[in-house]
Design the sequence.
């Protein structure tokens, strides 16, 4: 292990079973560098069950099983994890009074369950929690999951930047304390505040944060399921 180097897992779930958002990140606190890689939810993992997708690891055996499967495909077992469901995500965004964000294209999806309807227009908008969850859930473009992962990363960056730009350290520390009560994580509040003060407030958001998608060799079907290999 490198000194002053930490890894974290950001996970989002719609149904408290499948994890539709999986991001593995690293923080170098000496160089103030953050790298994040998105792991496609349909990534095949080596498990002895019919559906071999990484996104059902949490629902089957909990967060430690997901960390284990992330280790299996990346070689990194995350130090910290943060798991957020839909209601928690909405609450977190509303705690910071929403986020100004450029919606990159019209997003529309009509669902039998009104809770999952999506209706956002392209352009700058102030997104409250309910609108933000529509943004990060939408996958109705030719880019599908890959397009959605890019939008999710951009939104998380905008959310973090707002905490830095619009709140004092004291205000942000209070907000982080409230947020910690609304999410599932193994990171103590004091560590969250330490990372906020010593990394988020000093980092170059434009040049020192890198986002990528875990490269796959191909896509295909196995036992009636779509996979990323």
Sequence:
């Amino acid at each position: 292990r490198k000194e002053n180097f930490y890894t974290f897992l950001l996970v989002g779930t719609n149904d408290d079973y499948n994890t539709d958002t999986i991001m593995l990140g690293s923080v170098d606190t000496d160089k103030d560098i953050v790298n994040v890689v998105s792991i496609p939810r349909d990534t095949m993992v080596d498990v002895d069950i019919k559906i071999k997708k990484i996104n059902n690891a949490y629902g089957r055996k909990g967060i430690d099983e997901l960390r284990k499967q992330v280790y299996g495909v990346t070689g990194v077992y995350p130090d910290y994890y943060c798991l957020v469901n839909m209601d928690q995500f909405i609450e977190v965004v509303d705690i910071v009074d929403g986020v100004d964000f450029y919606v990159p294209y019209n997003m529309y999806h009509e669902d039998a369950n009104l809770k999952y309807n999506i209706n956002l227009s392209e352009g700058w908008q102030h997104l409250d929690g309910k609108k933000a969850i529509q943004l990060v859930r939408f996958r109705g473009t030719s880019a599908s999951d890959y397009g959605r992962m890019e939008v999710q990363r951009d939104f998380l960056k905008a959310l973090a930047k707002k905490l830095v730009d619009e709140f004092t350290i004291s205000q942000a520390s209070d907000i982080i304390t409230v947020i910690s009560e609304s999410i599932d994580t193994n990171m103590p509040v004091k560590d969250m505040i330490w990372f906020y003060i010593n990394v988020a407030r000093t980092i170059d958001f434009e040049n020192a944060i890198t986002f990528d998608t875990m490269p796959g060799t191909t896509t295909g079907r196995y036992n009636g399921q779509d996979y990323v290999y």
